[in-house]
Amino acid sequence: MSGEGSDGAALVGATGGAHALEFAAGELEWNPFLPDIHSDPYPLYRRLRTEDPVHWNVPGLWVLTRYEDAVRMLRHPRMSSDFRNSELFEMFRQMNPAFVDDREPSMLFRDPPDHTRLRNLVSRAFSVRMIEGFRPFIQRTVEELLDGFEGREEAELIAELAHPLPVVVICEMLGVPAEDQQLFTRWSDDLVHMLDPMVGPDVLQRATESELAFDGYFHALIGERRKAPRDDLLSALIAAEEEGQRLSEEELLRTLILLLVAGHETTVNLISNGMLALLRHPEQRGQLVGDPSLIRNAVEELLRYDAPVQLTGRIALEDMEFGGKTVRSGQQVVALAGAANRDPAQFADPDRLDFGRQDIRHIAFGGGIHFCLGASLARTEGQMAIGALVSRFPRMEIDTDTPEWRDTITLRGLKALPVRLR
Predict the structure, then answer these.
(1) Across 331-339, average pLDDT
(2) Which of 199, 357, 372, 410 is the most buried (most CB within 10 A)?
């Protein structure tokens, strides 16, 4: 779970349009839609960091690739998360009037004081204590999923572990009935595409329909919990109160969707990207097999090495400078977390996977006031899933030469990861 659920969400995704990006051959541009870059963005990240670390990009946004600049953007009090402050938003409104939502956005796209109030209320319900209380359930779920691998020669890690684990966990936390969990897969897939740059009308249409489906489902479930509260996160969110304030019905709906979608989408990618890196680096996997206590540091290094959320965006509320270039008020700025996490100015030999690396201050969970609300949950799930998988199947090998990546840009993850277990 990244961001407040998804701090890595690129605000450009909410203000883009249905434009193709076309560049002259050899021209230095950040174009994440090109197949080679989509499958491996890191060579381009290195070039941008070296040649143009504060990069102006079509259709009108700044792209940051250095760690120091990315952290400054994430923590700057005059950087807004509210996409309505972007000068691109009016362009989007004119191009896609049918898809402009006049409702207040989730706390992911809110600034103080509204963001502060919402986050405080949600934090009271979605607490570290609650997450810690779910450790036995997470461990039991991991073991049950891996029991299904026993006696087999092959497995597919996304469909059989990385996806079902966080879905089952966040639904159990929220109090969503087990028989309803499969309803959310398509709805969630539609909504995460809205985080990407340059979304088109077809993506907007599907996302709108899926959000309405989510709204209808949760509206009914909220009604049930108001009448008969249970010991779950949904009941805790309904009851959360601070200085006489509670979440409104609309705020509750937006928060539930945010927690549900972000509560599993990015964790799927954490587990799958992490396992792909392990399978490609047998020496590091061997260290982890020999010393399971390395798992905490290993997961932090895996988050740095191939972040499940590759970029996050803000809007400047005043003119400011990055790398000697002026970002005007109203312009959008995107920090490439995947690039910043491999900045040699911050991490020695950054393209090397090293479980012995110390002081891994990656920004895979964002930063500043929007730092990932669910970072503890994501870390717990990643540590338990990867640790158990490596321990039970130490000789596992990847069973494809060309892993296929999902077609999302903001979120980076695999469609499938077939493996040989023995």
Answers:
(1) 96
(2) 410
Res 91: pLDDT: 75
* CA nearest to 214, candidates 269, 265, 258, 173: 258
Residue 90 has pLDDT above 90, yes or no: no
> Domains (ranges, CATH) in the chain?
11-18+31-420 (1.10.630.10)
Closest CA to 54 of 31, 30, 34: 30
Share of the chain above pLDDT 70, in %: 91
The percentage of residues in the chain with a pLDDT greater than 90, rounded to a whole number, is 68
- Given a cut of 70, whether residue 34 has pLDDT beyond it is yes
Compute the half-sphere exposure of residue 247: CA atoms within 13 Å on the CB side of its CA. Answer: 29
Q: Check: CB of residue 13 under 8 Å from CB of residue 108.
A: no
Nearest alpha-carbon partner for 107 in 265, 236, 248: 248
Query: CA 416 → CA 272, 345, 403, distances in Å?
Result: 8, 34, 7
Q: What is the mean pLDDT of the chain?
A: 88
Q: Write the DSSP symbol of residue 158.
A: I
Radius of gyration, CA atoms only, the chain: 21
Q: How far apart are CA 412 and CA 348, in angstroms?
A: 23
pLDDT of the residue at 23: 39
Whether the CB-CB separation of 303 and 271 falls below 8 Å is answered with no
Assess contact for 99 and 201: CB atoms under 8 A.
Answer: yes
The identity of residue 300, as a single letter, is E
